[in-house]
């Protein structure tokens, strides 16, 4: 039994290695090279934009042809893990930082440090670049991001005598004040916030409060839950139960579900992913007067954790350099700007942000959305091995219990840290 | 009194049936309704079965989606082929399984249960490597084989249940009438099994038609995608869902199954059996 | 038997490899280096309170869904087998839930259960009942609400299975019982149920396995929430295998689930099969 167990495991290992090597060995020496580009897109406009960029490249580069393999966000992680382990991954891989880091750590992604042009490197804000740097290796080009924004119903704010905040940022205290002022104790609540899976929002916004959650990377990471980490959950809790200025049902909904109450005038403001601006423009009632409020700032500033969409290269690709060249082309200013416009996201390069700001002006809140693009920082949770498990089995249930008043803040902090200890024991 | 009670039975049955239809059908009706609503209406708090404004664009958007129609063709091919294979193999095997006792039965039942309980995610990597070795990843033939293999256990298990439900006396009676084993099988066992075979066939058709995980992992080229894979591309990152087009796509995707069900349900009951036992 | 070859290659071999991984520290990395670690994975698993908590939820879920499916489907199958009008139409209608991919089912039921924009609450409101129940997010209603969806999803297959079984009962048995003066209920308990027993056994055992094994439907509905009330054990295996890439430890979870489920089923099947033989004898005596 013992020996057989080991030998079968070894077999599996050898087969993997063998297959990985023969899989990449059949590329023709002459004739054009074909790169497989696994692209994720759900918006028809973004799909069209991707196709047009690839068509341009293929025309300019007859020797290096890129073939799009469309895939869906749903299940792509499972697909990739099988592709990588079976030695069948595509050359160019579209995904997001939070999910691609683990593949980099397991050795599946090419180091692009020397392949990225200086021009591009200088164009990407440091926080965003850090979010795709693992163990000092650049594992992906960042492309598109979203930030958390506050959208407000101008009519309701004005009716309540609230001045619409302007300026570069808005503090959380201002948000709380406005929420209190617009809550009328009957029909209208100040804020709607889709917090059904609260962990992502709390992680992304923690940097503004000095919350880091994790220290160290990989298997050695440790979790701390202190004032900086607890500040935002406590603030939400206080707004919901002391001020009673958050519409309770929204806290159990997803962002896109919670937005319906905003359209219906039941909430004066809503916290949403920035991409929702495009949906609000499309779905809100015709006479709905809305505005994107300035980026939220905590005591430490307006920072939010960056989790960009990414383009990476398979380390086992026969054509790492060609793939990187294609990604360079793909991330040129006008391409990134067009793609992000189609997806209603924030470009990962400063030049593309500026390009888009110039083109779109203040239409649909784009100016405020793009302004928030300067506040991205790299967050430690991206680089922590057991984060996904902790999030799903410990953090999300613990936050949900706290937000539903089943537990208090001491219990919340205990559950977060004890759960981490148990998972990583 | 008894006559009175019997007169009440029919209406009560209809009421119960209506209850079932409401429970099973209403969510689907709601899906159809969502498929003709605009995204503005879907994102409002208004609750209406009929849309305020018929928004057929969802259907054109769903159909314009790359490969919705061709992936339906792939799904149908894989589902029909694996159903045929499963029935061909499982029918004789299940008879053996149900009627013979001993270690073979124990081994068979053991494999059936373990293969259904063991998490698929742990099987997928070895399976992927094996299929790659024989060159059957990214191929509809490979997917058909996989679906056949993974439908087989429950097809066997269900069919042996149907065989076991046929009283052995009937077979013995047939044998006493002078028929040899094959004649008994053909004249008595198979006709009685017909509804069970039909039910099992529907079963394997649907599990292949809906199967997501194997298809997701094994198929690499878009031209080989099956319907669930294509439908999943309607769901975006960060939980963004284009509800209207997704609903429209799902409604369209259900049509082939409905056609298949309409054909099969006739076979499920009725003609096939009549007289088989008596004759 | 040549037909066994694909089964050996595509099912038995991967299964064996999967089981053997449970005794190693295998990880899903590019150059894996597996060590045989004996039962270490199992000892570690014994101490995982999260896993066993979700195991209890999984049992509640699987047992209730399986039982409700059986009862509801038995009723529907009887109705569909009793010569009512519009049989063909209702049969097809009853089957359509089957033709929906799980993701779509989950999204559809999320719309139905929506606390402020869903038809269920709107309907309750129109009857003057409370219309603000937050079905999937309230700590007390979440598990029952997902169980209803589980029943909905599994009903068509159970109904078809039982309907086929009902069709298979020779008319003579009913006729003989009717001549003996048995009423409808008596005929149901004395003829229908015993004849269906092997089919009920196979479909309940399969349903139980599937329900215990499923997590994607519930995951899309609730992501295991609220507060972990709908966290099914298979989710742990998934997270451990694919997200943490500790495939050895995950395989150990899989093996534990197999052992527990097969043990439960063995007890159930043994009692059923024994009754089976007994029933056959009794029936033989009657005729």
Automatic annotation (TrEMBL), chain A:
<keyword id="KW-0732">Signal</keyword>
<dbReference type="InterPro" id="IPR006059">
    <property type="entry name" value="SBP"/>
</dbReference>
<comment type="similarity">
    <text>Belongs to the bacterial solute-binding protein 1 family.</text>
</comment>
<protein>
    <submittedName>
        <fullName>Sugar ABC transporter substrate-binding protein</fullName>
    </submittedName>
</protein>
<keyword id="KW-0813">Transport</keyword>
<dbReference type="Pfam" id="PF01547">
    <property type="entry name" value="SBP_bac_1"/>
</dbReference>
<feature type="signal peptide">
    <location>
        <begin position="1"/>
        <end position="27"/>
    </location>
</feature>
UniProtKB/TrEMBL annotation, chain B:
<dbReference type="InterPro" id="IPR050901">
    <property type="entry name" value="BP-dep_ABC_trans_perm"/>
</dbReference>
<keyword id="KW-1133">Transmembrane helix</keyword>
<feature type="transmembrane region" description="Helical">
    <location>
        <begin position="109"/>
        <end position="130"/>
    </location>
</feature>
<protein>
    <submittedName>
        <fullName>Carbohydrate ABC transporter permease</fullName>
    </submittedName>
</protein>
<feature type="domain" description="ABC transmembrane type-1">
    <location>
        <begin position="72"/>
        <end position="264"/>
    </location>
</feature>
<feature type="transmembrane region" description="Helical">
    <location>
        <begin position="188"/>
        <end position="209"/>
    </location>
</feature>
<dbReference type="InterPro" id="IPR035906">
    <property type="entry name" value="MetI-like_sf"/>
</dbReference>
<keyword id="KW-0472">Membrane</keyword>
<comment type="similarity">
    <text>Belongs to the binding-protein-dependent transport system permease family.</text>
</comment>
<keyword id="KW-0813">Transport</keyword>
<dbReference type="Pfam" id="PF00528">
    <property type="entry name" value="BPD_transp_1"/>
</dbReference>
<feature type="transmembrane region" description="Helical">
    <location>
        <begin position="76"/>
        <end position="97"/>
    </location>
</feature>
<feature type="transmembrane region" description="Helical">
    <location>
        <begin position="12"/>
        <end position="32"/>
    </location>
</feature>
<feature type="transmembrane region" description="Helical">
    <location>
        <begin position="150"/>
        <end position="168"/>
    </location>
</feature>
<keyword id="KW-1003">Cell membrane</keyword>
From TrEMBL, chain C:
<dbReference type="InterPro" id="IPR051393">
    <property type="entry name" value="ABC_transporter_permease"/>
</dbReference>
<keyword id="KW-0812">Transmembrane</keyword>
<dbReference type="InterPro" id="IPR035906">
    <property type="entry name" value="MetI-like_sf"/>
</dbReference>
<feature type="domain" description="ABC transmembrane type-1">
    <location>
        <begin position="55"/>
        <end position="268"/>
    </location>
</feature>
<feature type="transmembrane region" description="Helical">
    <location>
        <begin position="196"/>
        <end position="221"/>
    </location>
</feature>
<protein>
    <submittedName>
        <fullName>Sugar ABC transporter permease</fullName>
    </submittedName>
</protein>
<feature type="transmembrane region" description="Helical">
    <location>
        <begin position="247"/>
        <end position="269"/>
    </location>
</feature>
<feature type="transmembrane region" description="Helical">
    <location>
        <begin position="133"/>
        <end position="153"/>
    </location>
</feature>
<keyword id="KW-0472">Membrane</keyword>
<feature type="transmembrane region" description="Helical">
    <location>
        <begin position="59"/>
        <end position="80"/>
    </location>
</feature>
<keyword id="KW-0813">Transport</keyword>
<dbReference type="Pfam" id="PF00528">
    <property type="entry name" value="BPD_transp_1"/>
</dbReference>
<comment type="similarity">
    <text>Belongs to the binding-protein-dependent transport system permease family.</text>
</comment>
<dbReference type="InterPro" id="IPR000515">
    <property type="entry name" value="MetI-like"/>
</dbReference>
<feature type="transmembrane region" description="Helical">
    <location>
        <begin position="92"/>
        <end position="113"/>
    </location>
</feature>
